[in-house]
Every structure is written in structure tokens, then in C-alpha cells.
Amino acid sequence: PPELGILNSCSPSQLEGLCSFLQLSTCPEPFLVRFCSWLLALTPDLSYSSAAVLAEQLFLGRVLSLTQPPSRHLMAALTSFCSKYSHPLCRVLVAAVLQEPGEGAEQTKLMCELVEECLEPHSVQLLLSQVLEVPLSEKLLPVLQAVLGRQEVLPPELLDLLVLTLCQQAPAFATSLSYAKLVTAVLTAYQSQVS
Predict the structure, then answer these.
(1) Which parts of the chain register pLDDT below 50?
(2) Does the domain made of 2-118 have the CATH classification 1.20.120.450?
(3) Using an 8 Å Cβ cutoff, are 64 and 16 in contact?
(4) Which sequence spans correspond to the domains of the chain?
(5) Consecutive H or E run containing 163
(6) Dihedral over Cα of 168, 97, 46, 77: its sign
């Protein structure tokens, strides 16, 4: 709808107010899918800060409250949004999930799905750098495994940070099969760079 052009002329705080007024954070998921498809057709593209506000308003509450796998509508909306705005989505969503205490099994699975199916290579690198900023936990190992599964060429400084993190935190994972698989994957994928 042409009215969506207003999204490009709002400041981030105005956009937050508009999202609140339209109750986008609690709108039914089928509408969320339609709204995200409208966003893709919007010209010009949303600014980074506007896309970050929308990522927070549309998805953050839904993702953090997951206690079972996301619905196909939520996944379709996320995939759609991610196809154009994966960087702001990563910044908002991944940072919040990493700060959540507890296991967060569904959130972890969702991050793995985003890595495997949705994110652009530069966003995968952003996600990896965000994960490496926090202490590793058993919950994060599958996410790192998913990143390695993409077989992306990592910048040398990011690969060094990954290897250093794995080395430093090895004692904490002495009995972890997931950790052993992760180290094996790093050595296999990057054997020429890892001495």
C-alpha cells in the first residue's frame, strides 16, 4: 500500500510510536507475513535504523517467548524480512537471544535455521562475531556448528578469534561431545589456516 511510504519518513522514535499504535508486535502472524512482503516492495529501501526498529517491534517479543518451534507463518515472515534486512535483524535479534539467561532451546534452533537458510554471508560473519563476544555455552555450540556448516570464507581476524575462543574455553567443555564435533569441524574446514 502507498501509505507504507510513511515508514521512510519517520525517525526511529516516530517509527516505534507508529508500530505501537498499529500494535505490530502482537498482530496475527498471517498478517505479519503480508506486512513483511509489503516491506520488501517498499522503495526506497528502509534505512538501517528503521529496519532495526521494525525487526525489534515485529519479531523480538515473539522470538524471546518461543517455547515450541516457530509457526510456519513466523518463519515465513522472518525469512522474508531477512532477505532484505538481515544485518539489522541480526543486530537486534541475535544480541537479545545471546543475553537471555537459560537454555533457550527454541531460540537456539531458530538461530541455526536463520544461519542455514536465510542469512547473507556478511550477516553470518556478524552473527559469529556476536556469538564470540559472550562466553560460550552448550546452547551456543550448535549455532557455531551451523556457521561452520555454511563453509563461508571467514576473514582471518574472525577465524583467529574463533580458534582462540575455542582454545581458551576448552577446559569448560572437557566432556562435551558438541564441543569435540565443533573443534573437528574447525580443523577440517580451515586446516590450512589453523596451525
Answers:
(1) none
(2) no
(3) no
(4) 2-118, 141-194
(5) helix 156-168
(6) positive
Q: Which residues contact 39 (CB under 8 A, 6 or more apart)?
A: 4, 7, 46, 54, 80, 81, 84, 85
pTM, two decimal places: 0.85
d(CA 131, CA 136): 8
CB 190 within 8 A of CB 155: no
Dihedral angle of Cα 57, 58, 61, 63, to the nearest 10 degrees: -140
Q: Cα dihedral sign for 51, 91, 141, 67?
A: negative
Report CA Rg, the chain.
Answer: 18
- Rounded Cα gap, residues 139 and 28, in angstroms: 29
Fill in the DSSP letter of residue 56: I
Distance CA 95, CA 42 (A): 26
In angstroms, the CA 131 to CA 119 distance is: 15
Contact 39, 4 (CB under 8 A): yes
- C-alpha to C-alpha distance for 20 and 34, rounded to whole angstroms: 18
Distance CA 128, CA 161 (A): 10
- CA-nearest of 171, 112, 118, 120 to 147 is 112
pLDDT tens readout for residues 86-123:
999 998 988 888 887 666 789 889 999 989 988 888 89
